[in-house]
Design goal:
Helix content: 40-55%
Number of strands: 5
Distance between the termini: 9 Å
Bound molecules: magnesium ion
Largest sheet: 5 strands, parallel
Radius of gyration: 13 Å
Strand content: 15-25%
Order of helices and strands: EHEHEHEHEH
């Protein structure tokens, strides 16, 4: 199980990494923005992508759009403070699989992942 963690916040990437490790997921790659995320998906295969919304250079929506345009079907969970319904619909229309609102409990992240990938 290989996971791409995309967030401009190092603290958030570390937090997610810690939560995943507790669930036995240790094969993770970090990207700091959408550009890095898109390029990571061109060079490695992932089972799951956790995508922040607001990032410099390229945000999450644009990254999801480009990843989907390149034909990659990997599940993408938007991890975002953007709780407004319209924006979530926009993310799903862009190709996101699901979303998780920040701040989240560790258990919420794990159960979201399990609901998408099935228990590991
Ligand atoms: Mg951000």
């Amino acid at each position: 199980m290989k996971v791409l963690i995309v967030d401009d916040s190092l603290v958030m990437r570390k937090l997610i990494t810690t939560v995943l490790a507790k669930a036995g997921i240790t094969d993770v790659v970090h990207a700091q923005n959408g550009l890095e995320a898109v390029s990571s998906t061109q060079t490695a295969q992932f089972d799951l992508i956790l995508m922040d919304w607001n990032m410099p250079q390229m945000g999450g929506i644009e990254a999801v759009t480009q990843i989907r345009q390149s034909g990659i079907k990997t599940p993408i969970v938007m991890v975002t403070t953007e709780a407004e319904k319209e924006r979530i619909i926009k993310a799903l229309q862009a190709g996101a699989t699901n979303y998780l609102i920040k701040p989240f409990e560790p258990e919420a992240l794990i159960s979201k992942i399990q609901s998408i990938l099935g228990p590991s």
